[in-house]
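Board work, copied verbatim: Pyridoxamine 5'-phosphate oxidase family protein
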Amino acid sequence: MSDHLITDLSSLEALFGPVAAPSIAKETDRLHPLYARWIENARFALLATSGPHGVDISPRGDAGALVRIVDEHTLLLPERRGNNRIDSLRNVIADPRVGLLFLIPGIGETMRVRGRAEICVAPDLLDSFAVDGKRPICVLRIAVEKVFFQCARSILRSGLWREEADTSSVPTPGAMLAALTAGGIDGPAYDSALPKRQRETLY
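↓ predict structure ↓
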């Protein structure tokens, strides 16, 4: 198996061939007005970070636009209520480099943003992101360094937005917790209470 590993950059580039011109042309170091408009329509993204304990990727979502665009170089991402693991935020403290992958249901293309984040708790800023009187715990201020859109092939291959997807074989959160705790957590009870708890603690 080791005879078939790619371990150097030249071999990797030879494996894939040249980059297509549009794939180079679409990359910018700022939020082009059309990229900004695309992101303004996104309510969901994956946030990637890296720190002393490794890399992390976690979901972020909101009822409206997920991020606020300050200018062509700056995004604001509110940190809403969650499970308090704060894996991403711990990483940002250690290493400010972040990546965001924005998705819009029904759209095959995704938008990729790379930059550097800092954690802000300015009261007026938190107030400006309040929903139903509930402020985010903090806000990530992200200095944009690279932006480009990703083609739709992966979304098309996976059929991600197909409504007819069969989820009957997917284990529930309760089932997974019950297995991981050897029955210490009552799986069916957890699943039964989860929808109400999630609705009541969105913000």
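Strands lie at 44-51, 54-61, 68-71, 74-79, 97-103, 110-120, 138-150.
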